[in-house]
């Protein structure tokens, strides 16, 4: 058993949330002493995709692997196709993104990373928090940010998806246009759509996505469904499915319980947008705000919120509408994309709106339907 160490900040988890906070702290004028405790071994980085709308500098431009200035939504027999070169839809590789973050963190001598460090004991004691890992390493920190996913907690909806990297024999995809939602069904059992991100004319990530209400069984994702979708929607012959990635995102997590010096971070602190499942830029902005506050005060910023109260309220109303009228969601999404200026839509969906953007979103949706659910719980 090793002797204990002492740091100002310990971050549990070396994924997107934990490394984004460590990177933001590394970029301050006088970085604090930080220890990141990651359960996975060195070099074990995830190999999947994160997407967002590029509305500010939350994500460094050199970490973006692809951009789509046009988006498409297919619903109620229509194809809505906004064009927004100013705020394109963008994708990053998790592996490359986190590798760049680790390189940046490595330039701050006061920040260390322990791998193979699964935290088993965590105890607040006076002015600090004691932690011990499964292999007996100990550390005492003044403050702890715990970015581990929240334990099972009731959520009104889950976004469950399976993504297939497909290659076709024919050049059918448009590498300038992302298909964000191509709705297939919507009802009490859930809302299903396909999502297509072309890499080139014959390669794309095709995700079979379900929004599933609480209590509904989780869907299955047979590869034949993706094959049929590519053949019928795109009129192409599938040559191969090269890679598969899966995800299960909680939508509408309850507000985090913040006690003492051990603070929830990332998804446990509400980083996942309740109404959409997007989190990347919310995590990056929250990390920057936290680091700036620490630099000024040498204390964490409280309370921990990734969006203002009015956005959390709007998301709650949206989830209530979705719960009571799932069959109407394809038409509502189509109306929002068709009637909102693309730049306003991108900023709103990226949790970075101006007041006028919010008003435009509200005007695009049926006012009576949403007002009816404002006070309903």
Topology:
Layout: E1 5-12, H1 16-26, E2 34-37, E3 49-53, E4 66-68, E5 70-75, E6 78-80, E7 89-93, H2 94-105, E8 111-114, E9 119-125, E10 128-133, E11 138-146, E12 157-168, E13 177-187, E14 190-200, E15 203-213, H3 223-233, E16 238-251, E17 262-264, H4 280-297, H5 309-324, H6 329-339, H7 342-349, H8 355-364, H9 367-372
Parallel strand pairs: 1-2, 1-11, 2-8, 5-13, 11-17
Antiparallel strand pairs: 3-7, 4-7, 5-6, 9-10, 10-11, 12-15, 12-16, 13-14, 14-15
Helix pairs in contact: 1-2, 1-4, 6-8, 7-8
Kindly describe this structure.
The structure is a single chain. This protein has helices spanning 16-26, 94-105, 223-233, 280-297, 309-324, 329-339, 342-349, 355-364, 367-372; strands at 5-12, 34-37, 49-53, 66-68, 70-75, 78-80, 89-93, 111-114, 119-125, 128-133, 138-146, 157-168, 177-187, 190-200, 203-213, 238-251, 262-264. The protein is built from nine helices and 17 strands. Helix content is 27%, strand content 32%. The strands form three sheets. Strands 1, 2, 8, 9, 10, 11 and 17 form a seven-stranded mixed β-sheet that branches. It has a seven-stranded mixed β-sheet with strand order 6-5-13-14-15-12-16. Strands 3-7-4 form a three-stranded antiparallel β-sheet. By secondary structure, the chain is of the alpha/beta class. The chain is globular. The protein folds into three domains: 5-47 and 92-151 and 253-297, 3-Layer(bba) Sandwich (FAD/NAD(P)-binding domain), CATH 3.50.50; 157-251, Alpha-Beta Plaits; 320-372, no CATH class.
């Amino acid at each position: 058993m090793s002797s204990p160490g002492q740091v100002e900040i310990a971050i549990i988890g070396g994924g997107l949330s934990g490394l984004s906070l460590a990177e933001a702290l590394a970029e301050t004028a006088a970085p604090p002493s930080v220890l990141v405790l990651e359960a996975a071994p060195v070099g074990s980085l995830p190999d999947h995709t994160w997407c967002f709308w590029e509305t500010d500098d939350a994500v460094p431009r050199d970490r973006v692997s692809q951009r789509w200035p046009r988006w498409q939504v297919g619903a109620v027999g229509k194809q809505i196709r906004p064009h927004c070169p100013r705020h394109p839809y963008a994708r990053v590789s998790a592996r490359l993104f986190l590798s760049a973050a680790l390189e940046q963190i490595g330039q701050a001598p006061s920040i260390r990373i322990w791998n193979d460090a699964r935290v088993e004991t965590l105890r607040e004691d006076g002015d600090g928090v004691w932690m011990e890992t499964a292999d007996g390493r100990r550390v005492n920190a003044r403050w702890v940010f715990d970015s581990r996913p929240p334990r099972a907690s009731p959520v009104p909806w889950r976004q469950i998806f399976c993504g297939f990297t497909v290659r076709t024999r024919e050049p059918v995809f448009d590498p300038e246009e992302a298909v964000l939602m191509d709705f297939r069904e919507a009802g009490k059992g859930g809302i299903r759509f396909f999502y297509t991100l072309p890499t080139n004319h014959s390669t794309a990530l095709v995700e079979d996505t379900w929004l599933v209400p609480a209590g509904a069984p989780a869907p299955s994702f047979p590869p034949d469904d993706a094959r049929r979708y590519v053949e019928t929607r795109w009129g192409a012959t599938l040559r191969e499915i090269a890679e598969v990635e899966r995800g299960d995102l909680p939508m509408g997590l309850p507000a985090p319980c913040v006690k003492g010096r051990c603070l929830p971070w990332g998804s446990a602190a509400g980083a996942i947008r309740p109404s959409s499942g997007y989190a990347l830029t919310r995590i990056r902005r929250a990390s920057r705000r936290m680091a700036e506050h620490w630099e000024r005060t040498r204390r964490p910023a409280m309370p921990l919120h990734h969006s203002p109260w009015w956005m959390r309220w709007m998301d709650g109303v949206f989830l209530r509408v979705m719960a009571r009228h799932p069959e109407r969601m394809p038409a509502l999404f189509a109306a929002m994309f068709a009637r909102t200026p693309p730049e306003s839509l991108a900023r709103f969906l990226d949790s970075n709106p101006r007041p006028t953007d919010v008003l435009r979103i509200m005007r695009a949706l049926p006012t009576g339907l949403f007002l009816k659910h404002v006070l309903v719980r």
